[in-house]
Amino acid sequence: MNEFSLIEEFFADCTQKREDVVLAVGDDCALMTVPSGCELAVSMDTLVVGVHFTAEADPAALGHKALAVGLSDLAAMGAEPAWATLALTLPEVDRAWLVEFTQGLSRLARSYGVQLVGGDTTRGPLAVTMQLHGFVPRGKALRRDGARPGDGIYVTGTLGDSGLALRARLEGLPLSQETLCCVEHRLDWPQPRVREALAIRPFAHAAIDISDGLAADLGHILKGSGVGAAVEVEALPLSESLRASVELDQAWALALTAGDDYELCVTVPAKYRDRIRAVLSALDCPCALIGTIEEEPGFRCRRQNGASFIPQQQGYRHF
Ligand code: ADP
Ligand code: MG
């Protein structure tokens, strides 16, 4: 099987067709139309074997996750997903693997109306690079530089579950079967907060998705906005699975520093306190107010009693 028949068989038609795509897979470039009045939001992420996943990883989960992390970036900008391009490096052509990979990818793509419009296929150590394209009305993107003193800091869902799954997998941390199942699902099948992000876009000053740990990612907002933050650890949203598995201070540390949560962290002015809760609860999305943006730069993490809490680990860094 050559690379052209591989592309034709697995990727040319694996997602739904969109009206704004003039020309998709098969020519030198794909051609698409951006709606007038919108900016184009573009993000790219790479998953590499041995770094982000192992060679034995479930190919369906890999196809899902490669797209999910890009959708999460679009969500963090308040952008509506539209198109994807995929650069795939494969050690060999394994049909069974490709069938599952494209199934994981197409299922998620269809559920968000995303069309795969092009890509590149090469031979080498397994790596998946996904580029996502979405739309955001001009000037309305949720940037990292928009946070203002007095904003509430909100987090969707729960934090630290993927970090717990990773520790179980890499360090052999013993977990009950039920807990392992819950947290591995969070790690392998992340659900990007796309609808939630679009609903909160009118009310938020700044947003980021939590991929490298809350402390690191909120840190990007603080730096970008030239502000600081006070966060109360007791307010961090923790799942029952996490609470039941480790000591509370370890759970807080995981929630603050472990990656792969793909939840949203948003800063919202005080006047929209109720709106933010209302729009998220309408989507059945848990939301926690964890702290406040302050003028004084720095990330201050405190216990309810005022003592500072300093987690041991740091967010994941490649270099
Ligand atoms: P070129 O030599 O012009 O770069 P390629 O052989 O790389 O062309 O790709 C042929 C066509 O197939 C292009 O339209 C490209 O976008 C598409 N394509 C290649 N690999 C993939 C992939 N993994 N998924 C989707 N489309 C792909
Ligand atoms: Mg090419």
TrEMBL record:
Mg(2+) 3 binds at D28, D73, D209. Residues 148-300 form the PurM-like C-terminal domain. Mg(2+) 4 binds at D28, S43, D73. Gene3D superfamilies: PurM-like C-terminal domain (3.90.650.10), PurM-like, N-terminal domain (3.30.1330.10). Its EC number is 2.7.4.16. Keywords: ATP-binding, Kinase, Magnesium, Metal-binding, Nucleotide-binding, Thiamine biosynthesis, Transferase. One of its GO terms (biological process) is thiamine biosynthetic process. ATP binds at G119, D120, R144, S211. It catalyses: thiamine phosphate + ATP = thiamine diphosphate + ADP. Mg(2+) 1 binds at D45, D120. It is an enzyme of class 2 (transferase). The keyword Methyltransferase does not apply. Mg(2+) 2 binds at D45, D73. Pathway: Cofactor biosynthesis; thiamine diphosphate biosynthesis; thiamine diphosphate from thiamine phosphate: step 1/1. Substrate binds at H52, D260, Y316. Mg(2+) 5 binds at D212. Residues 26-134 form the PurM-like N-terminal domain. The keyword Glycosyltransferase does not apply. GO terms for molecular function: ATP binding; magnesium ion binding; thiamine-phosphate kinase activity. Catalyzes the ATP-dependent phosphorylation of thiamine-monophosphate (TMP) to form thiamine-pyrophosphate (TPP), the active form of vitamin B1. Reaction mechanism of ThiL seems to utilize a direct, inline transfer of the gamma-phosphate of ATP to TMP rather than a phosphorylated enzyme intermediate. Belongs to the thiamine-monophosphate kinase family. NCBIfam families: thiL (TIGR01379). This is Thiamine-monophosphate kinase. The lineage of its organism: Bacteria, Pseudomonadati, Pseudomonadota, Gammaproteobacteria, Chromatiales.
